[in-house]
Design goal:
single chain, 1 helix, mainly alpha
Length: 109
Amino acid sequence: MQFSWDINLSTIFMIGGTALALIRFWIQAEQKAVQADKRATAAEEKADKAHEKIAILQASVNAYQVTQAERLVSREVLREVEGRLAGSIEKLGDRLDSLLREVIQHRGE
């Protein structure tokens, strides 16, 4: 077999077919890259929106926790005041009872 540099019709078709296949591959790869870029941009936008929603929800949860803590503190303070008030009323009742006893004893004498 002898090598020759002659270009015939089949050689032109092979070179042309290979070139067309490479061009087609290049175009498809570029289209896929563009589509992937669009999807990535859309995903970034969705992620940004999700982060905004998360920040809003975190602020809402924090506000709720603060409100609940304030209510709990208010209830504890209210219970404490109620206890002191009940104790004072009982002492006042005891004093009135002792005053009545003294008045009754003085009248009885």
